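User: Can you recover a sequence for this backbone? Please restate the input before giving your answer.

Assistant: Of course. Working from this structure:
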C-alpha cells in the first residue's frame, strides 16, 4: 500500500513541520487550513523551516560535521550523501507547498491524511464527522494527537479500521521519531502502511503494541514538563533557574521551559486544561492553566513560532 498524495490538516508548529518534511521526501502534499488568514500564518513557519534545512545542508556540504538524521534519511555514511540533491529537494518542497481552504478539494485524492489540529477531542471528532463523507475509499487517516487515544476518536472518522495515530516529536528533522499506535480495530495493513511511510519521510518508526495515553515519549515528557510548570505556577522558582537546575544536574541541552517553547504553549495549555481541577485556581493544575492563559497565550507569547514564549527569540 504505497502513498503518493498526503494531506495535512492544520498548519501549526507540528503540522507545518510534517508537511514540509513530507514534501522534502518527494510526496505530493496539501495543507488544509480553514481560512486565507490561517494560510498567511502558516507560510512564515514554512519559510523558517526552508531556511533551516538549506542552511544545515549547505553547512554540512561545505564544512562537514554533524547533520540532522531526518535531513539525510538516517544515512550514517556522509560520503554517500548527495548534498546538492538534498538542497534541491528542500527548494522543490518549498516551491511546491500547496494550501487549500476547500476541504473537499483538499482531500479528493488523498492516500493519507495526517490530522494535526489542536489537542481538543471535541474539535477533532467534529472535524472527522465533517470530513468522512468527502474521502475516497482508499484514504487512511492518522492523528498526530500527543495525548488522546485513537479509540476515543475512531468512530467519528467513519472508517475506524483505517484510523490510527502517528505522533511526531517537535523539530522532526532532528528528533526524527514517529510513534505508530493503532487501536483494537485498526487494520494491520493500514498500520504497516503508515509505519512504512514514516521510514520513507526519514523518520524512525516507534511501534506501540497497544494503546497508551501519551504514547512512549509523552508518557515520560508530560510529567516532567508538568512538574516544571508547577514549580513556576506555585512560585517556587523562576523559569531560568528551573531550566538551569535541570541542565546543570543532568547535562541536558535544554531545560523544560525551552522545550515548552518548542512544543508550543497552546499545546501545553490544552493538555493541562484536560486535567481535573484545571478550572480551579486553588489547585496546582488550575494555577498552571491560569498562568499559561493570562501571561502567555493572551499576550501572544506562544513559543518559538511567535518569536516569544518563556524566552524571546527575536
Amino acid at each position: 500500500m504505497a502513498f503518493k498524495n498526503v494531506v495535512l490538516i492544520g498548519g501549526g508548529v507540528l503540522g507545518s513541520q510534517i508537511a514540509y518534511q513530507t514534501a522534502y521526501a518527494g510526496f505530493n502534499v496539501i495543507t488544509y487550513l480553514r481560512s486565507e488568514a490561517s494560510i498567511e500564518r502558516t507560510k512564515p513557519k514554512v519559510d523558517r523551516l526552508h531556511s533551516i534545512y538549506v542552511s544545515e545542508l549547505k553547512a554540512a556540504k561545505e564544512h562537514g560535521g554533524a547533520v540532522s538524521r531526518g535531513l539525510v534519511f538516517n544515512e550514517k555514511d556522509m560520503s554517500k550523501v548527495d548534498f546538492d540533491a538534498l538542497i534541491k529537494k528542500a527548494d522543490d518542497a518549498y516551491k511546491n507547498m500547496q494550501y487549500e481552504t476547500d476541504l473537499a478539494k483538499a482531500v479528493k485524492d488523498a492516500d493519507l491524511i495526517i490530522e494535526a489540529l489542536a489537542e481538543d477531542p471535541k474539535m477533532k471528532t467534529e472535524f472527522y464527522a465533517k470530513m468522512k463523507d468527502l474521502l475516497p475509499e482508499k484514504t487512511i487517516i492518522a492523528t498526530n494527537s500527543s495525548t488522546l487515544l485513537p479509540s476515543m476518536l475512531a468512530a467519528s472518522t467513519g472508517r475506524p479500521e483505517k484510523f490510527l495515530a502517528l505522533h511526531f516529536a517537535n523539530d522532526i528533522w532532528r528528533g526524527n521519531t514517529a510513534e505508530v499506535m493503532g487501536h483494537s480495530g485498526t487494520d494491520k495493513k493500514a498500520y504497516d502502511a503508515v509505519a512504512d511511510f514514516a521510514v520513507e519521510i526519514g523518520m524512525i518508526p516507534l511501534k506501540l503494541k497497544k494503546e497508551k495515553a501519551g504514547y512512549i515519549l509523552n508518557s515520560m515528557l508530560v510529567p516532567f514538563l508538568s512538574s516544571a510548570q508547577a514549580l513556576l505556577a506555585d512560585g517556587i522558582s523562576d523559569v531560568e533557574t528551573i531550566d538551569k537546575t535541570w541542565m546543570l544536574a543532568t547535562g541536558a541541552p535544554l531545560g523544560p521551559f525551552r522545550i515548552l517553547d518548542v512544543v508550543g504553549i497552546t499545546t501545553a495549555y490544552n493538555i493541562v486544561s484536560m486535567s481535573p481541577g484545571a478550572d480551579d485556581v486553588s489547585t496546582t493544575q488550575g494555577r498552571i492553566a491560569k498562568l499559561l492563559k493570562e501571561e502567555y497565550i493572551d499576550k501572544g507569547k506562544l513559543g518559538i513560532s511567535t518569536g516569544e514564549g518563556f524566552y524571546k527569540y527575536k
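That completes the design. The first strand starts at residue 5 and ends at 9.
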